[in-house]
């Protein structure tokens, strides 16, 4: 297959996007990044929490958990078992936030974990755009979910965020970004069944933003308010 990630012809990957670090080198998780991580993908985790409570899910995986802030707020209070997976340098931050969880430090582009128990729900929020090869991470999601479980995958919606004429991400740590059709094709290629596709704010909205959206609906939309695409999948 010429285009294994289903990105449109002419799109240029960002080769400078390198975010993998071991626990011994680098300063990727600095104070500012930890602070901002608590507001990004806020609505994705909020949705996951509502689903966990509704379905009474017991085992969850936060794949690309970062420092664990949103997992502490939205996942741990409702799950019997929470598994955290991310690059090794997240370990100390994640386990500080979630000391009763299990943490696996891995290279997400070479992910080959075999967990003892499959999960009821997997959250992979804004991870795949950082990976030169997202297939191992997506295959892990497919192979680690129960037959009746749910996989939640989010990533920027390129056409909304950048415009239809974008052929390269200006975000320094994004290798590539998908539009809705491209992402759906990728997930279906992996073997996932798409249940729903939603557009959400990429980060927690202010009260004023919520008031404007409620008052004006689509007319009041800005790309910053609905440029995160969240796909709900099963196998």
UniProtKB/TrEMBL annotation:
InterPro entries: SAM-dependent_MTases_sf (IPR029063). Pfam families: Methyltransf_23. GO terms for molecular function: 2-polyprenyl-6-hydroxyphenol methylase activity; 3-demethylubiquinol 3-O-methyltransferase activity. CDD domains: AdoMet_MTases (cd02440). GO terms for biological process: methylation. Keywords: Methyltransferase, Transferase. Its EC number is 2.1.1.222, 2.1.1.64. It comes from the Bacteria. The keyword Methyltransferase applies. This is Class I SAM-dependent methyltransferase. The lineage of its organism: Bacteria, Pseudomonadati, Bacteroidota, Cytophagia, Cytophagales.
